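TA notes, week 10

Several of you asked for a full example with nothing omitted. So below is the full record: structure tokens for the whole chain, then the designed sequence directly under it. When grading your own attempts, check the secondary structure regions first.
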């Protein structure tokens, strides 16, 4: 049942930027090409500076990874906006060869009154963009990247492809979860006395509640992001969506806490031999009044239990291997850093 946790940790390590060996190799080679910053700043490089009024869900203000569900849609939208800004700027610079400070980098462009501020070099991603046209002060870069008067950016509130990525991630995670939990449930179901007993019921409840929690938190994040399109909450639909988002979030977190205690207690009772008693061994939940206890297993019952254990092992290992395979395929589609 706990096999899924190992795979989640492996996936986290593979996707985490802290574990990118190629990035560590380039940490010294790209120092001169990095982006400068103003000195004497004590702020952290990455920090959440929003307040309670800036977000639709309070979970967006919490940094632990378990709260990433509440930030995924907004992060995808913000990342898409930043990407499009740089993409359009590079395409425009390629067409007109527009420099930041003059075409020759000698100040022949607009005068920059902030020459005393540290200049920032762009990382060249196009061979035909002159390097001298990519340097300027911090303030001039802000002016350079600002849209002209009267021009509005047409950025969508929903990042393109975000629901496709969400669908793939959800299906992969659910397949891993139910592949491992289903294997444990299969062992408990087919071990004499067969059918639903204390052990198999604990596995089933854990899987069902986990899936229910995932569904509630996912719906909560979608409704919260939808309400964020109307920050003033003027329309009735926005207020209703936000209210349902809060209800889903509170209920999902309550079920998650209950499920945590359930799975811990199920494991403790399993290994403390608490289930080794008449009520649990007779599978009362599945057989009702016809429940019985197997004292001596027959050859057929032993063969059935053996086949169930083998099938459960194959199911769990196949789910784990498929999860790693899909994760590897998705990693191959990510752009790699230049060597």
């Amino acid at each position: 049942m706990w096999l899924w946790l190992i795979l989640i940790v492996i996936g986290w390590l593979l996707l985490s930027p802290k574990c990118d060996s190629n990035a560590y190799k380039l940490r010294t080679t790209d120092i001169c090409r990095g982006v400068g910053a103003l000195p004497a700043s004590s702020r952290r490089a990455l920090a959440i500076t929003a307040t309670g009024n800036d977000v639709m869900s309070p979970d967006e203000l919490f940094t632990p990874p378990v709260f990433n569900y509440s930030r995924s849609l907004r992060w995808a939208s913000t990342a898409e906006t930043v990407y499009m800004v740089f993409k359009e700027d590079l395409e425009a610079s390629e067409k007109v060869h527009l420099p930041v400070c003059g075409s020759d980098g000698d100040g022949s462009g607009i005068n920059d009154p902030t020459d005393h501020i540290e200049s920032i070099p762009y990382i060249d991603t196009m061979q035909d963009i002159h390097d001298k046209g990519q340097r300027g002060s911090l303030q001039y870069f802000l002016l350079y990247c600002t849209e002209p008067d009267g021009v509005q950016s047409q950025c969508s509130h929903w990042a393109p492809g975000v629901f496709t990525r969400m669908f793939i991630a959800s299906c992969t995670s659910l397949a891993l979860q139910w592949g491992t939990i289903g294997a444990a449930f299969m062992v408990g179901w087919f071990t004499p006395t067969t059918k639903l007993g204390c052990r198999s019921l604990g596995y089933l409840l854990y899987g069902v509640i986990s899936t229910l929690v995932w569904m509630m938190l996912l719906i909560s994040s979608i409704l919260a992001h939808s309400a964020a399109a109307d920050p003033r909450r003027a329309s009735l639909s926005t207020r209703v969506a936000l209210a349902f988002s809060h209800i889903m979030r509170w209920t999902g977190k309550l079920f998650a806490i209950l499920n945590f205690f359930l799975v811990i207690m199920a494991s403790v009772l399993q290994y403390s031999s608490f289930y080794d008693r008449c009520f649990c061994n007779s599978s009362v939940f599945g057989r009702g009044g016809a429940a019985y206890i197997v004292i001596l297993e027959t050859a057929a019952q032993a063969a059935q239990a053996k086949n169930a254990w083998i099938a459960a092992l194959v199911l769990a290992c196949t789910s784990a291997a498929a999860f790693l395979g899909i994760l590897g395929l998705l990693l191959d589609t990510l752009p790699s850093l230049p060597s």
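The radius of gyration is 28 Å. Use that as a sanity check on your answer.
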